[in-house]
Amino acid sequence: MEGPNNPRFFEEDLNSFTSPSESPNLPSPFLLFSNPNSDFPLRPSLLILAISSPSLSIFHHLSSSKTLIGTLILPEISFSGNSIQPSLSDKSCNIYALQDHSTLLVSVQCSVASDRSHAVAKLLIGGSQISPDKVLIFDSVQSRNFRGKLSPGDSFAYKLETSSERNGVCTLKGLEPFPSGSMIEGLGAAILARCQMKKMKGALCVSWPDSGGFGVSSLLKSLLLKDVLPDLNLSLDLDDEDGLWTGRDSHLDSELYT
């Protein structure tokens, strides 16, 4: 996020990332936890949001290292057709605890419409139920939003950071900043903007291709083990699902430029 012009965000700025709601009477999104008597707000040292296909695939393959503790409910998203056990084909937004519950993971396996991104960001970041010390987002870039030519055979990842993240110990030490003039859109942009507004440590890992694949999945897995969760037991069976997940519409309208 931080670049030569050091953009600043205020509460009203988040509304500029979203289109006017087409359904003003739509119920607000909410969080539902398996233990409603938990000591809220939950205060994880790290909150991870997996939005991109390769990141969803990586975290889906965690087994003994994660525990399902809740879900984000978007009333407009139907659970019809979802499996009993979590699946990459489900339209869901589950919340997991990793390791000793000091890290929370939100697996965003459904499309969050542009007019809902602000509300979801407020719900997940610094609200009454979740208040993390640091936030890490895994998202992807669309070719139309990247300043430069992209080939399906390319694999890369860049980072965007809040001011607080850049001034402290950076989470994504091995990544270069997202190129100036390129753009990130959708929930990832709204979450990072929310972190900046709240003066929180936040980082957004932006990868290509957005459809996943072996190259970018291996890159993200290496990044997680090296910089983020070195003690986590990560396994990725690319023969099973080839690191791909295409269960949603990847085009969202919330935007963030660098």
Short key terms for the protein model shown above:
two-stranded antiparallel ribbon; single chain; Rossmann fold; alpha/beta; 22% strand; 7 helices; 258 residues; nine-stranded mixed sheet; 11 strands; disordered N terminus
What does this structure look like?
This protein has about 260 residues and is of the alpha/beta class. It has one domain: PAC-like subunit (Rossmann fold, 3-Layer(aba) Sandwich). The protein is built from 7 helices and 11 strands. The strands form 2 sheets. A 9-stranded mixed beta sheet has the order 1-3-4-5-2-6-10-7-8, sandwiched between helices. Strands 9-11 form a two-stranded antiparallel ribbon. A hairpin with a 4-residue loop joins strand 4 and strand 5. The N terminus is likely disordered. This is Proteasome assembly chaperone 1.
CATH fold label: Rossmann fold
Unreliable parts:
1-8, 16-22, 236-254
Looking at CATH, the homologous superfamily is: PAC-like subunit
Main beta-sheet strand count, sense and barrel state = 9 strands, mixed
Helix content: 10-25%
Distance between the termini: 6 Å
Structural class: alpha/beta
Number of helices: 7
Number of strands: 11
Radius of gyration of CA atoms, rounded to a whole number = 17 Å
Percent strand: 15-25%
Number of domains: 1
CATH class: Alpha Beta
> How are strands sequenced across the largest beta sheet?
1-3-4-5-2-6-10-7-8
Q: Taking all residues together, what is the mean pLDDT?
A: 82
Protein name: Proteasome assembly chaperone 1
Organism: Tetracentron sinense (Spur-leaf)
